[in-house]
Amino acid sequence: MRIIEPSHEFLEAFDGLEMVKSIERMGRICYKSEGNISDTSYRKFLQNLISRGHESVIEHGKVSVLVICDRGVSHEIVRHRIASYSQESTRYCNYSQDKFGNELTFIRPCFWTADSPAFAVWKASMEAAERDYFRLLELGATPQEARSVLPNSLKTEIVVTMNLREWRHFFKLRTAAAAHPQMRQTAAALLRDFRSRIPVIFDDIAAYDGQ
């Protein structure tokens, strides 16, 4: 059994500055103000669009991310309709094979410390799930049958492609105080990276910091 932290990876190289400048060019067609474009005009233009709720223009930009999280979190991610997803399949993946290290991988819960009684109970439950999953395979069950005993904490990999408007919606919901702690952990890390790569678009979204 292996326990890991959630993580993510941008699957396609992109230049965030060029992306927002391209969005500005497209957006200015609405007002026929292309002549006002300068090296820095994108910032005020996009800030004005977002502040007025005219966010359809930023749908012209999209980003694809590989998210490694637990399956419970992935169930929340796929609630977002305007997106494309490709997810690791427990129907076809046989975790007893060498390419999976002949073990199950689980995401560490962020709300329990490793020395807490609650974490000990969780870990024992994961060990039991792994043992029972492999036993079912030994008894002739197929992976899609044996997956019946797999828990929400099982690691999954999911590719998420959204346009920038939907990413904004995603971050507003999934980094809020009401979000599930593990969902917020994953989304907040993503938001930090989006902000570092793409100017302006996500500057007004403040992730809940637990205070």
Structural description of this entry:
This protein has 211 residues and is of the alpha+beta class. The strands form two sheets. Strands 2-3-6-4 form a four-stranded antiparallel beta sheet. The protein is elongated, with a radius of gyration of 21 Å. The two termini are 34 Å apart. The model has no long low-confidence stretch (mean pLDDT 96).
List the helices and strands and how they pair.
Elements: E1 2-4, E2 7-10, H1 16-28, H2 41-51, E3 62-70, H3 71-77, E4 84-87, E5 105-107, H4 117-138, H5 143-146, E6 155-163, H6 164-174, H7 181-197
Parallel strand pairs: 1-5
Antiparallel strand pairs: 2-3, 3-6, 4-6
Helix pairs in contact: 1-2
Question: Nutshell version of this structure?
Answer:
With 211 residues, this protein is of the alpha+beta class. 40% of the residues lie in helices and 15% in strands. The chain is built from 7 helices and 6 strands.
